[in-house]
């Protein structure tokens, strides 16, 4: 009599996410850049620089994380696969200034590059729900395994902290933008707020362009700086993050009146400032 073989159970997997947080990923990018500069290197060589054995599972997980954060780019497959530090990665690790708004902005950009990161940030922002609530969301809405959800929550929180996405200054002023654009962002607090105009950390680059976004009835248009044409995925991420920033940018309908000559609802609690320059582009 032939035995009836049971079908093999499909191994449960969580969706793709960076298995290491942004801090360790940046350190690995530094080690690789120190050894190889901006040149392509075989994956096994990269793993060796990081102290892993060839084809190490943990090493390949680290490679995948750097790719998701935009710190690494690869080409080829199998034994011919190579990778190198991206321009974004170089801008971060080569900026050695003690205080660097540019580097801080680029770290925020890297932190939100993984698809699930920018989706959750667009949904919750810095006000994450409890771990148990977030765990439930990851399992039932994103098909995470129980262990994968726990690991992701730890990694996501570490990345948010390292990139200082949830930082607030003592005077309740936020200068944070997770997009390389010129945009005013007002933190939604009960006290008088200030909208800080920040210039793109990428800035107008060779081959890039500055796009003025027309607003009906206003002679002051926001400007979006793009280093080049962006991918469909980057466009989707940009729209998602802008949507998350909407409460700090758009005045509520309850506010009476309109700012003369701007076409914007006037909010007496908001003071528009450009830091040191009053004529900075909007």
Could you explain how this protein is built, in words?
The chain is α+β, with helices and mostly antiparallel strands and 282 residues long. The protein contains nine helices and ten strands. It has a three-stranded antiparallel β-sheet with strand order 1-3-2. Strand 4 (183-185) and strand 5 form a beta hairpin. Helix 1 packs across helix 3 (57-69) and helix 5 (101-111) packs antiparallel against helix 8 (146-163).
Gross morphology is globular
Low-confidence stretches: 168-206, 254-282
> How many strands, which pairing sense, and closed or not: the largest β-sheet?
3 strands, antiparallel
Average pLDDT works out at 76
Sequence-ordered SSE layout with sheet pairings:
Elements: H1 22-36, E1 41-42, H2 43-49, H3 57-69, E2 72-75, E3 82-85, H4 87-93, H5 101-111, H6 115-124, H7 131-142, H8 146-163, E4 183-185, E5 193-198, E6 209-212, E7 223-226, H9 232-249, E8 258-259, E9 264-265, E10 270-273
Parallel strand pairs: 5-10
Antiparallel strand pairs: 1-3, 2-3, 4-5, 6-7, 8-9
Helix pairs in contact: 1-3, 1-4, 4-5, 5-8, 6-9, 7-8
Describe the structure in brief.
This protein is about 40% helix and about 10% strand.
Name the features.
282 residues, single chain, 39% helix, 9 helices, three-stranded antiparallel sheet, alpha+beta, three-stranded mixed sheet
């Amino acid at each position: 009599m032939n035995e009836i073989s049971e079908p093999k159970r499909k191994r449960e997997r969580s969706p793709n996410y960076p298995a290491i947080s942004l801090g360790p990923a940046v350190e690995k990018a530094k080690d690789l850049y120190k050894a190889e500069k901006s040149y392509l290197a075989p994956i096994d060589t990269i793993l060796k620089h990081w102290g892993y054995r060839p084809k190490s599972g943990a090493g390949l997980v680290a490679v995948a994380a750097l790719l998701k954060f935009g710190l690494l780019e690869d080409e080829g497959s199998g034994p011919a696969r190579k990778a190198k530090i991206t321009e974004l990665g170089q801008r971060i690790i080569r900026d050695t200034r003690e205080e660097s708004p540019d580097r801080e902005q680029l770290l925020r950009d890297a932190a939100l590059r993984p698809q699930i990161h920018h989706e959750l940030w667009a949904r919750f922002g810095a006000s994450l729900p409890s771990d148990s609530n977030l765990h439930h969301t990851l399992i039932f809405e994103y098909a995470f395994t129980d262990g994968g959800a726990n690991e992701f929550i730890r990694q996501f929180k570490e990345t948010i902290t390292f990139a200082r996405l949830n930082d607030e200054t003592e005077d309740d002023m936020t200068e944070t933008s997770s997009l390389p654009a010129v945009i005013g962002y007002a933190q939604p607090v009960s006290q008088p707020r200030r909208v800080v105009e920040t210039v793109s950390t990428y800035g107008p680059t060779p081959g890039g362009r500055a796009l003025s976004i027309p607003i009906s009835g206003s002679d002051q248009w926001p400007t979006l700086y793009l280093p080049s044409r962006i991918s469909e995925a980057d466009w989707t991420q940009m729209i998602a993050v802008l949507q998350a920033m909407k409460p700090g940018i758009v005045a509520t309908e309850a506010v009476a009146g309109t700012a003369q000559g701007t076409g914007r609802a006037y909010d007496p609690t908001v003071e528009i400032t450009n830091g040191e320059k009053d004529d900075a582009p909007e």
